[in-house]
Structure formats: structure tokens, C-alpha cells
Predict the 3D structure of the following.
Amino acid sequence: MAKLLEGKKALITGAGRGLGAAIAVAFAREGADVALAARSRNELEEVAAQVEKHGVRAAVLPVDLRDRQQVEKLADDALSVFGGLDIFMNNAAMESTLRPFLDIPEDEWDSTQEINFGAAIILLRRIGARFVEQKSGNVIIMSSIRGTSGVPMGSGYATTKAALNSITKSLAVEWGPAGVRVNGILPGPVLTPGVRAALEDNPALLEYFGNIAPLKGWNMPDKVADTAVFLASDMSRAITGHLLVTDQGLTAILQDAFTMVSTEAMQAAAAPGDG
């Protein structure tokens, strides 16, 4: 049976852990060579070993996305390491601290914008130029449902995701005539290893977020990775400019109903002795 991404070459940022690692392995399973970018070489090498088990090539490209020169070099290296690219998966992101907008330190705000949006723009310019020139290419941008509405205490992160949602649609329109597709993935809460570690001391809250959406049980990295495979493959060849929500129905809940459910669940999660 033919693999969905047979012979394709992909770059994935934020590929050292969590969603990026899951997407890298899913792409490899479907036959793609994968260039892996993140800060930690050790983490990238671990993911590369998993990728190569599927009989494809992996390239490890450590990068600090706050450094413009490193980001520009990443784009050039990714375009050359396999002799070209077919897929650019922009996944890297920095979670900002939950705090009121007026209390966010300027350096934290700047770092969030640089990593989540600024680095993406640099990569889109350089890789997108190649895609337009070759009249083919597939861009997938990992966004979030937090980029679709107001997020009190989380404006730094949400602002970057809203900007990514906007650039996804704009570039889809601009690059579509050249045969280049641009789509976004908007997950809700996902149980990555980092999220599990953050909530391990609060099992009630872990249970609450795992069942907040109509489809019960945590959304997992492999589910989101399957969505990325779909968008990267010819199965979605008629889709561009689309923000594909993968939140298990969370944003389909009416706000008034969501408030009642959330209040009750949060009270239960905070009750002494729970968990």
C-alpha cells in the first residue's frame, strides 16, 4: 500500500518533543524524509532515531528561534539538506506565563512574539519564496483555538496565534495561484509530556481538562499528528486557507453552557480531598 507522503521532504520546527516529535514520527511513517529543528540537539537526536526506524532520512538542525541569523540559516539548511523541501510544518511555540497583560514583562512579551511569530515569518519568507518559485509546496502552521478569541491572562500567546491564523489565510490567497497550499491546525488542550508534568500534582485538574470537550478523554499528540499528515498529503489537495480545529468539539459549546459546566467542574477540581 502506498504511503501518503512517499518521497516527500519536510521541515518541522519544535520537533524535539510533544506535538512536533509526534508529527515527525507520523510523517516518517508515511514515507517522508524529515528535517528536525529545535533548541536541544539531544532531544532532536532521540526523535531522529525514531524517524529513521521507518526507513527514511532524518536531519538534526538545532536552532535558537530568537536569533534571526540562526533562523535564516535553518531555512537555508533545511532547503539544502535533502535537496529541496515539499512540506514546511511550523510548529515551534513558547507558552507565555499566565498573568494580566499589564504585568507581562517586556522581555517575556518580546520572546513570545519572536519565537511564535517572528521566526515563523522569517522561515515563511525564505521557504515560501522557494515554494512559489518551484510552483509547489505545502505549508502547515500549528496555531491554537486561543488565537480565535480573547484569552484573559494569556494575551501574549494568544496574540501570536491570532497573527498566525491571519497570515495563514493571507498567504493561501497569495500563493495559491503558484500551486502552494497554506493551512493551519488549531488544537485545544493536548496532553503532551509537558502538560502531563505540569498537572501531575493536581489529578482533579488533569481530569477536568481531559473531559472539558464533548468528545471525552484528552486530545493526544498522535491525533493532532494524524491531522498534520492529512493536510500534508494529497488527500487534502483541494484545501487551502483553512484553519482546521482539532479540539474535540470544545469551541462548539455555547458560551453560557460552557460557563456553567466549567464552574461546576472547577469547583469540584478545587474541593479539598479530591483526586
